[in-house]
Design brief:
The complex is a heterodimer. Chain A is an all-alpha fold. Chain A has one domain. Chain A contains 14 helices and no strands. In chain A, α4 crosses α9. The radius of gyration of chain A is 21 Å and the shape is globular. Chain B folds into two domains: 216 residues, Rossmann fold, CATH 3.40.50; 82 residues, 2-Layer Sandwich (Alpha-Beta Plaits). Chain B contains eleven helices and 13 strands. Chain B is elongated, with a radius of gyration of 24 Å. The two termini of chain B are 29 Å apart. The mean pLDDT of chain B is 85. The chains are: A mainly alpha, B alpha/beta. The interface between A and B is medium-sized, with 25 and 31 residues.
Chain lengths: 316, 311
C-alpha cells in the first residue's frame, strides 16, 4: 500500500490541478486576509483579535467572503472533489487498474492508499493556507494569538480536514460508481451546489416556513420556525461545518446561539450581543457536528470501499 | 516443455446475471509451454484469464495456477504470474522506466535488481531509446512493447498475454513473437490469447479454442490440423470439369488419400503427403481435363473456422 500511497502523493503534488488549487488558496488567503485586516482596523474590540483574521470583513463587503465562510462553502468542497472525483474511474478507463491489481497486493490497498494520499494532500493544503494567513496576519495586526486562540485554530484545522475528507469521500464514491470521469465530477459538483447553496438558502427555509408559518409574527412562531430551520439546515454538511467554524472561531457570536444562519447572507454578526463561550463549552457545542462529519465521511468511504471490492475488474 | 502441470482447471464456470460467460472450462497447461487461447470476441478468453489470475471469482469450479488456488491464494498466484491486458494502460505522467519501476516496487523487487532487469527488458522489447520519455508521448505500438516488458518485470513463472501483438508493425510483431518463443527457455510458461491465427501458429505449442464460453477443442497444432482435415496434413484442390462420382471413388482409392469431396468443378482431396502426381495421373487417365491443381498445408484458420462454426 505504501508504494501506491507514495505514487499518489507524488502525482497530487506534481499535477497542474494541485498547482491551481494551491494558487487559488494563496489568492483567497491574500484577499480574505487583506479585507480582514481592514475590518479589524476599524474596530476597537480586544477579545479574540487574532481569530478575527479568519472571520472579519470590513463593513459593506458580504460576510460570505470571510476566510471561514469561503473555506466552508467554496474552497474545501472544491479541494475535496478535485482530489477524489477521478480516483478510481481514471485508473479503470486508463487501463491501469487491471495492471495494478494483477500485482501481489490486496485490492483494498488501492482505494485505501488513494484515500490516505488525498487526506494528506488536503491536510497539507489546509494547514499551509491557515499558517499563511496566521503568519502574514500576525505581521499585519501585530497582535500575537493567545493559547486559547491557537487551540481553537487547531481544532478548526481538524474540523476542516474532516470536512474536506467528507467531500473527497463523496467524490471517490462517485468515481467508483460511475465509469465516466465527467459523470462523477458533475455528480459531486451537483451535490456541493445543492447542499452548499440551494438547500441552505432556499430549500430548508422554504420547508420550515411551510411547516411553521411566521405570518402572525408571534415570538413563539418565530422561535419554532427558527428551530425547525436550524434542524433542517443541519442535514447539510456545509452548514454543519459552517456552524462549527462559527462556534470555534467566533466565540462571542457563538455565545448568542443565534444568527449562525444569518451570518451567511445578512452580515448581522456585528449586531449580536457579545457573550463568548469558553473553549471547553465550544468543544462541547461542536462535538455533535464533529461526530456527524466523521460519520458522513466514514459512510462515504465505507460505501466506496464495499462497491470497489465487489466490482468486476475488466481490462476493457 | 516439461510434464509438470502449471495451470489446471476443473469445471471452471463464470456467470454474470445468469449469463454464462465461461462454461465448465477444463484446461491443463504444462510448464514451459506456449498455449494459445483462441476464440471470437465474447468467447470468454479474458474472463478465463482473470479467473486464473485471481482477479475475478469463478461462479463454480476450481483452478490451480503454479500450485495455488487463485481464488483463495490470489497474492501467491500474482507473485508468480505476469499479465498483459488487452488494453494495457500506463501512467502517462511517468516515463517508461518509472512505470516499470513502480510495478517492480509493488512486487518488492530490490532496487539493485530492478535497474538491471528493467534495462534488459527495455532492450528486449526494443524501446531502450525512449525509456526516459513520458509514456503519454508513446504510440500504441510502443505502449504494447512496454506492456510486454511490464508483464515480465517480475520474472514470472507464468505470463498471460492478451493480444500481445495488437498495434505493432510487422517488424515489431516478429520481434515480439521471437521474444515470446524464447520465454520457455527462460523458465516462463506463456498463455497467449490472440485473434491473429498465423501468429499463434508460429509460436504456440498447443492451442485451445473457446466458443460461447466452452472449450470446443484443445491440443497440439498438428493434432488439431489432422482432426480438422479428416486426419490429413495436406489439402489438394483439383480443378476439372464436372467430376463424376466414379472419379471421386477412383481418387479415393489412391494410396494415402484420406478424404475426397466434390464441390462444383473442384475435387478437395485430404492427404498425408504430397500426392499431386498420382492424382493428376489418375484424373487424366480417366479422360477428365485437368485445369489446375493446388496444394496447401493445413493452417490454424482451417481448424479455427471448423470449430468456431461447430461451437
Amino acid at each position: 500500500m505504501i508504494t501506491i500511497f507514495r505514487k499518489e502523493l507524488a502525482d497530487h503534488f506534481t499535477s497542474i490541478r494541485c498547482l491551481i488549487l494551491f494558487l487559488l488558496a494563496f489568492l483567497v488567503s491574500a484577499a480574505t486576509l487583506y479585507s480582514a485586516f481592514l475590518g479589524i482596523r476599524g474596530t476597537a474590540e480586544t477579545e479574540f483579535v487574532f481569530l478575527k483574521l479568519f472571520t472579519t470583513q470590513p463593513t459593506g463587503i458580504p460576510t460570505l467572503f470571510t476566510f471561514v465562510n469561503f473555506f466552508a462553502l467554496f474552497f474545501i468542497p472544491i479541494i475535496g472533489i478535485a482530489l477524489g472525483f477521478d480516483a478510481i474511474n481514471s485508473e479503470r478507463s486508463g487501463g491501469t487498474l487491471s495492471r495494478i491489481l494483477s500485482q501481489p497486493l490486496f485490492r483494498d490497498s488501492v482505494i485505501n492508499a488513494k484515500f490516505l494520499a488525498g487526506i494528506v494532500t488536503l491536510s497539507i493544503m489546509v494547514v499551509t493556507t491557515v499558517l499563511l494567513v496566521s503568519g502574514y496576519g500576525l505581521r499585519l495586526i501585530g497582535v500575537p494569538p493567545t493559547s486559547e486562540e491557537i487551540f481553537r485554530l487547531f481544532i478548526y484545522l481538524i474540523f476542516t480536514i474532516i470536512y474536506g475528507a467528507f467531500w473527497m469521500g463523496l467524490a471517490v464514491l462517485f468515481s467508483v460508481i460511475f465509469r465516466r470521469i465527467g459523470t462523477s465530477l458533475l455528480s459531486s459538483v451537483a451535490l456541493w451546489l445543492f447542499f452548499g447553496f440551494f438547500y441552505i438558502l432556499m430549500i430548508a427555509p422554504a420547508i420550515a416556513n411551510a411547516i411553521v408559518p411566521t405570518a402572525d409574527g408571534t415570538a413563539e412562531a418565530l422561535l419554532r420556525n427558527y428551530e425547525l430551520q436550524l434542524a433542517l439546515l443541519r442535514f447539510s454538511p456545509n452548514f454543519l461545518f459552517l456552524e462549527a467554524s462559527t462556534v470555534l472561531l467566533q466565540p462571542p457570536l457563538a455565545g448568542t446561539l443565534l444568527g449562525v444562519i444569518g451570518v451567511i447572507a445578512s452580515g448581522l454578526a456585528g449586531w449580536m450581543i457579545p457573550n463568548p463561550l469558553s473553549l471547553s463549552q465550544s468543544i462541547l457545542l461542536v462535538w455533535p457536528h464533529f461526530t456527524s462529519l466523521v460519520s458522513l465521511t466514514l459512510i462515504c468511504f465505507a460505501i466506496s470501499y464495499v462497491a470497489f471490492m465487489r466490482q468486476e475488474i475488466r481490462a476493457t | 516443455m516439461s510434464e509438470e502441470i502449471i495451470v489446471e482447471t476443473q469445471g471452471l464456470t463464470k456467470s454474470y446475471d445468469g449469463v454464462t460467460v465461461v462454461d465448465h472450462l477444463n484446461l491443463r497447461i504444462a510448464d514451459k509451454e506456449i498455449f494459445g487461447l483462441l476464440g471470437p470476441n465474447g468467447a470468454g478468453k479474458t474472463t478465463s484469464i482473470l479467473m486464473l489470475l485471481g482477479l475475478t471469482e469463478p461462479t463454480s469450479g476450481t483452478a490451480q495456477v503454479c500450485g495455488y488456488n487463485p481464488t483463495r491464494e490470489p497474492l501467491k498466484v500474482k507473485r508468480l504470474t505476469g499479465y498483459l491486458p488487452e488494453k494495457v494502460g500506463f501512467y502517462d505522467n511517468l516515463t517508461a522506466r518509472e512505470n516499470l519501476k513502480f510495478i517492480a516496487q509493488l512486487n518488492n523487487i530490490s532496487d539493485a535488481e530492478t535497474g538491471s532487469r528493467i534495462n534488459e527488458l527495455l532492450a528486449a522489447v526494443n524501446i531502450s531509446e525512449v525509456a526516459d520519455l513520458r509514456v503519454g508521448k508513446f504510440s500504441r505500438g510502443m505502449k504494447q512493447r512496454l506492456g510486454i516488458a511490464d508483464a515480465l518485470v517480475k520474472k514470472p513463472r507464468l505470463v498471460f498475454l492478451d493480444e500481445p501483438t495488437a498495434g505493432l508493425d510487422p517488424e515489431g510483431i516478429n520481434q515480439i513473437l521471437d521474444l515470446i518463443a524464447n520465454l520457455p527457455q527462460m523458465g516462463t510458461t506463456v498463455v497467449m490469447s490472440s485473434h491473429r491465427l498465423h501468429e499463434v501458429q508460429k509460436v504456440c505449442h498447443r492451442v485451445g479454442i473457446l466458443s460461447k464460453g466452452k472449450m470446443v477443442i484443445e491440443g497440439s497444432l498438428a493434432d488439431l490440423g489432422r482432426e480438422a482435415l479428416a486426419g490429413a496434413r495436406y489439402r489438394i484442390e483439383v480443378e476439372t470439369i464436372q467430376p463424376s462420382s466414379q472419379l471421386v471413388d477412383i481418387v479415393r482409392g489412391v494410396n494415402g488419400v484420406k478424404k475426397v469431396e466434390s464441390k462444383g468443378n473442384l475435387l478437395l482431396v485430404s492427404t498425408d503427403s504430397d500426392l499431386r502426381a498420382e492424382i493428376a495421373k489418375i484424373v487424366v487417365q480417366n479422360n477428365f481435363p485437368l485445369i489446375q491443381m493446388k496444394i496447401q498445408e493445413f493452417t490454424l484458420d482451417d481448424v479455427y473456422m471448423k470449430y468456431f462454426h461447430e461451437g
